Structures are given as structure tokens and as C-alpha cells.
Amino acid sequence: MTWRLSSAEFARLKGEGNRRALRALVDSGEPPGLLAYVGDEPAGWCAVAPRDAYPRLDRSRVLARVDDRAVWSVSCFYVAKPFRRSGLSLALLEAAVAHARTRGARIVEGYPVEPRTGAMPDVFAWTGLASTFRSAGFREVARRSASRPILRRGVRGPAGRGGGRAGRGRKDGPGPGRKEGSRSRGSRDSPRPRKGSAPGR
User: Fold this and answer.
1) In angstroms, how far apart are the furthest CA atoms of the chain?
2) What digits encode the pLDDT tens for the residues 87-129?
3) Which of 28, 91, 153, 156 holds its CA 20 to 30 A away from the CA of 176?
4) Helix (H, G, I), strand (E, B), or coil: what is residue 83?
5) What residues have CB less than 8 Å from 86, skipping those under 6 apart?
6) Residue 75: other Cβ atoms inside 10 A
């Protein structure tokens, strides 16, 4: 719920309040993101929605809008510790792009971190790593901070229902990757992203 609420609202609802708010969002029928399973075990989460669903992004100097084009945003990830560094984040990102495309998106945007030196502790990489986005065909379109680029990927396909308006003009990147729910090559035990609820953030 980090990007959906103001910092004051998020702090006030911290913990159980934010979990209830996320559950209400799920119960409304509009999936706030995707879950990944390894076998029958939930292993990861990725939030994806039209950027308008994340008003806090617009209050960020670093992550403010690049232009007025309609985009979908991949705003956060969570991968359980046993499944990290297994390719699951990339599988989730590809599934998020496919999901956004079926809902009418033409551009998908991300706000990953790019460590300036060495590895970054996992806790600080919850918006994803720039290297993962680049592996999925995203291209940098803005950088207002040394470690926080904004990346985009253009997608093609028939407009889906609700939420995303088709962008006009040039495409920001190559076409979509695997279909939602497809298995990730090289990922541990073939993780499968699915639509669904998420652990509270």
C-alpha cells in the first residue's frame, strides 16, 4: 500500500490497518498485483496497476511523471528468502507486463534501484533492481537520482478491459514477453505467477 497512500496515512495504518486496506482492495475485484508460487507454496509478489492508482509517486521529486502518457506501473516486489536469486523477480516482472497488456496497457513503467557499488541489501531493493528490468526489455527514460532510474517497456496487443488507456505515438521498448502464468526458464522449481492478494506492505 506504500504508493497508494500518503506517508501519513501509511504510518497511521501501519500493520493491521494496511493489511485490511489491501484485503478490501482484493475483495473489490481489481487485482492489485500477482503472486508467484513454487509448487503450491506462495513464494513472491509483484504489485502492478495503472500509475494513477499510486498517487504518492507524483509527490516524489525523483519518481514524478516523465510525461502525460498513460502508463501502468510495476511498483514493488517481494520474494521469500528461500526463493531469492532464482529468477523469480524476472518471472514476476514478465507476468506483470503480460497482465498489464491484457488490461489495455501500452506502456509499462518501473522504478527500480541501481546500486552504485557492489550488492544492495534485499530490504532496500523492494522496487526491484534495474538489471532485472533491463533483462525484461525495459529501457531507461529518466534519471533524477544516481541510483533511481525510471524505465519503460512498450507492449503490443488488443486493448483489454478497464484501467489502462492506450498510449499514442512511439513504443518505449520491445514487445511483451511470456504470457501471464507461464513458467520461468531457469527459475527454481518453475515458479508460476498468478493473480491474487499479497503480503502487506
Assistant:
1) 43
2) 999 999 999 999 999 999 999 999 999 987 767 667 778 899 9
3) 28
4) helix
5) 187, 188, 191
6) 28
